[in-house]
Design brief:
The complex is a heterodimer of chains A (113) and B (114).
Chain A lengths: L3 E2 L4 E5 L4 E7 L6 E7 L6 E7 L4 E4 L2 E6 L4 E6 L8 E11 L1 E6 L3 E6 L1
Parallel strand pairs in A: 2-11
Antiparallel strand pairs in A: 1-3, 3-8, 4-5, 4-9, 6-7, 7-8, 9-10, 9-11
Chain B lengths: L3 E4 L2 E4 L4 E8 L5 E7 L6 E7 L2 E5 L6 E7 L2 E7 L7 E8 L9 E2 L3 E5 L1
Parallel strand pairs in B: 2-11
Antiparallel strand pairs in B: 1-3, 3-8, 4-5, 4-9, 5-6, 7-8, 9-10, 9-11
The chains are: A mainly beta (113), B mainly beta (114).
């Protein structure tokens, strides 16, 4: 029962272009969504988040869009830079006494020069 | 400062050993977490502590024993582990305000059980 899905295991984008990473979820109780970036053998690094009451949040080159009716969110990175090459995890939050983060399977983003 | 520090970075232990993983944060966060990540898989929640009390145990085997001695420290005691327990163990912390918020992760401990 995978509640958070990232259907693209990998994505390759040219430097300077836009990278779009997608995430779908099934549980309508999720009320907060986060994107993390991860390098091998390191912990996830928080990038950006969005509350379920919003449909867009922007921070520099990163923008997250949320479509609640479709249970879909996306992360846009523009312009893409070589240092953006990493695995990106979408996570959804559920607060049941304490917060639980449920992660998607991750998308490996490669930025080509 | 959004740093969560985990020690050791790498650990190799035998199936009869007892070892502990340590996690420390000084951000004043009152929620702390242990996650486990196997290769090419997403992190999976193991335990959540809120105000030094265990709030969530995701049906983790008793060979993993968490401890929260104070608001800045989180330990994971390991005993009689199996080779399939080899994984990256991640600690995280967040503010505790009864609502969703960002969680910040440490670098992880790469555990190998032989």
């Amino acid at each position: 029962d995978q509640q958070v899905k990232q259907n693209s295991p990998s994505l390759s984008v040219q430097e300077g272009r836009i990278s779009i990473l997608n995430c779908d979820y099934t549980n309508s109780m999720f009320d907060y969504f986060l994107w993390y970036k991860k390098y091998p053998a390191e912990g996830p690094t928080f990038l950006i988040s969005i509350s379920s009451i919003k449909d867009k949040n922007e921070d520099g080159r990163f923008t997250v869009f949320l479509n609640k009716s479709a249970k879909h969110l996306s992360l846009h990175i523009v312009p893409s830079q070589p240092g953006d090459s990493a695995v990106y995890f979408c996570a959804a939050s559920l607060v049941q006494g304490a917060q639980k983060l449920v992660f998607g399977q991750g998308t490996r983003l490669t930025i080509n020069p | 400062d959004t740093e969560v520090t985990q020690t050791p970075k790498h650990l190799v232990m035998g199936m009869t050993n007892k070892k502990s993983l340590k996690c420390e944060q000084h951000m004043g966060h009152r929620a702390m977490y242990w996650y486990k990540q196997k290769a090419k898989k997403p992190p999976e929640l193991m335990f959540v502590y809120s105000y030094e009390k265990l709030s969530i145990n995701e049906s983790v085997p008793s060979r993993f024993s968490p401890e929260c001695p104070n608001s800045s420290l989180l330990n994971l005691h390991l005993h009689a582990l199996q080779p399939e327990d080899s994984a990256l163990y991640l600690c995280a912390s967040s503010q505790e305000r009864g609502a969703a918020t960002e969680a910040f992760f440490g670098q992880g401990t790469r555990l190998t059980v032989v």
